[in-house]
Amino acid sequence: MDRTQPELTNLAAWTAYGRHHIERGTDIPDADRINWGFWPSGPGFEVLGDLSGKRVLDLGSGMGKYAAHLVREYGAIVDAVEASPTQHERAVARHGTMPGLQLIHADAVEYLKQAEPYDVIYSIHGFGYIDPHRLLPAVAGALKPDGRLFFSVLHTNTAGRGPFQSVTAHPEVLPLAGGEPLTVHMWVLGPTLWEDLLVEYGFLVDTIDVLDAPEDSNPVSCRLFRVRRRARPR
Ligand SMILES: C[S@@+](CC[C@H](N)C(=O)[O-])C[C@H]1O[C@@H](n2cnc3c(N)ncnc32)[C@H](O)[C@@H]1O
User: Fold this and answer.
1) Is the model's pLDDT at 234 over the cut of 70?
2) How do residues 123-142 score in pLDDT, each as one tens digit?
3) Is 186 inside a domain boundary?
4) Looking at the chain, which runs of residues are DSSP E strands?
5) Domain containing residue 15: CATH number
6) Rounded mean pLDDT of the chain?
7) How many domains is the chain built from?
8) CA atoms within a 13 Å half-sphere pointing along the CA-CB vector of 82
9) Distance from the CA of 137 to the center of ligand 1, in angstroms?
10) Which domain, by its residues, includes 9?
11) Closest ligand 1 atom to 3 CA
């Protein structure tokens, strides 16, 4: 299955996003924890368990700040795949010489189809931009039996809209500091729908964490899925 139209729109938006920040010289501080939601609260690195000796992939890694955090603070060996050429360029400029971190510029699905299987794949707000019917079989094929998958996604947006009950992408605003907001198309699905898709493609869901914004006035809510690949097909 080729990239769908919403995914091509997202690639264009994330390319424009990265270009804007390169031209603006935006400096992003290094991560000092993993924020599965958008806030420095809730579960962090410990979700991933012991990563020593494991093959680990960050999917939709952006500037690579979380992958670099795992390598720097915990000595993990991490591959990080990012589709946007400009976000990848920012990642290379920032972390390109870090031993233990491999920054890969590719569509995650195309990459996964030919990758050596991983023990752990995680994604912090990457899954919402990729058609689940294209993404999930590729992730299942690139995880070892019993391999673990962790991903966080939007449950409701800044307008409190969502989740949706069909596997369809909807327009969302991608704010751009110092520029006009960009439009992306995101799969913002209800947890039951995510779970049905995950089971369909060979996973078992262990836990779904609710990650609400810390302020009562902010309607944004995210979900963190902790999943494993079934060791044997049903
Ligand atoms: C919200 S950003 C998150 C970046 C990073 N995980 C973080 O939290 O800092 C989502 C990223 O997913 C990337 N992405 C979207 N579709 C992708 C695909 N098909 N393959 C690889 N990366 C993709 C985007 O380019 C963008 O950099």
Assistant:
1) no
2) 999 999 999 999 999 999 99
3) yes
4) 56-59, 78-82, 101-105, 118-124, 143-156, 170-174, 182-186, 203-212, 221-229
5) 3.40.50.150
6) 96
7) 1
8) 24
9) 18
10) 5-23+33-125+133-229
11) 19
Ligand 1: residues whose CB is within 6 Å? 7, 10, 14, 60-62, 65-66, 81-84, 87, 107-108, 124-126, 129-130
Residue type present at position 214: P
Residue with the nearest Cα to atom 26 of ligand 1? Answer: 62
pLDDT tens-place string over residues 59-69: 999 999 999 99
| Span from the CA of 99 to the centroid of ligand 1 (angstroms) | 22
Inside any domain, residue 28: no
* E-assigned strand segments in 34-138: 56-59, 78-82, 101-105, 118-124
CA distance 20 to 17: 5
Q: Give dist(CA 30, CA 33) in Å, integer.
A: 9
Q: How many helices (H) does the chain have, and how many strands (E)?
A: 6, 9
| Domain assignment of residue 234, yes or no | no
Using CB atoms within 10 A of its CB, is residue 11 exposed (0-12), middle (13-18) or buried (19+)?
middle
